[in-house]
Task: inverse folding
């Protein structure tokens, strides 16, 4: 894995594929807040309940639906730009989720279903982002380092949301759950736009043409 990180230092496009994912997961994954939001904002019982279950299921549900209808992914050639768009959609979905929590009335009503749909849309966007980034990893990396970079990929995918749990939990303790979720989504959009402007080669990255048969 250390060799994978060393390889990334000299390959900006691949490095950026990890950087934008870390931004998306660390600042835009409010999962740690779901128990409190389900109880305080949507009136669920303190030990779980329907609101809690649906909030936890929304992102995976969106990812599954996005995967079922993912045939279009193979037709996208500007994969760098596609990753950026997918992550911006993820960030905006978390903003909508946070605003829905802000407007919640203490029961499962319109605000809850807006929050649920926003999370599901975020899950579909995350699925698309992961598909594009995986393809970039397989195509842009040298054959002898793909396994090492896959190790880095697993660390980022598994570790980012855990860091997000700490970040969102700490932020919510200071500003509240709605502000933490909304602010996290805003930060995703702002930071991803900023880093891609700093490294335009990532946005310009295109998939290699298929070999002639």
Result:
């Amino acid at each position: 894995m250390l060799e994978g990180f060393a390889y990334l230092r000299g390959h900006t496009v691949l490095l950026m594929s990890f950087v934008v994912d870390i931004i998306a997961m660390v600042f835009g994954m409010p999962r740690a807040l779901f128990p409190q939001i389900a109880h305080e904002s949507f009136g669920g019982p303190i030990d779980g309940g329907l609101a809690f279950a649906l909030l936890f299921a929304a992102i995976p549900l969106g990812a599954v639906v996005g995967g079922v209808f993912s045939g279009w992914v193979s037709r996208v050639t500007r994969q760098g730009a596609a990753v950026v768009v997918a992550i911006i959609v993820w960030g905006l979905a978390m903003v909508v989720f946070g605003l829905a929590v802000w407007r919640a009335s203490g029961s499962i009503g319109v605000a809850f279903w807006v929050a649920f749909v926003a999370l599901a849309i975020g899950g579909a966007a995350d699925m698309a982002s992961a598909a594009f980034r995986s393809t970039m990893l397989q195509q842009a990396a040298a054959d002898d380092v793909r396994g090492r970079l896959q190790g880095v990929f697993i660390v980022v995918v598994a570790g980012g949301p855990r860091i997000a749990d700490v970040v969102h939990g700490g932020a919510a303790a200071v500003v509240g759950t709605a502000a933490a979720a909304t602010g996290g989504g805003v930060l995703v959009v702002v930071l991803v736009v900023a880093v891609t402007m700093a490294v335009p080669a990532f946005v310009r990255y295109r998939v290699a043409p298929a070999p002639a048969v």
User: Anything to note?
Assistant: The chain is about 75% helix and 0% strand. The chain has one domain: 2-40+58-66+74-204. The first helix runs from residue 2 to 9.
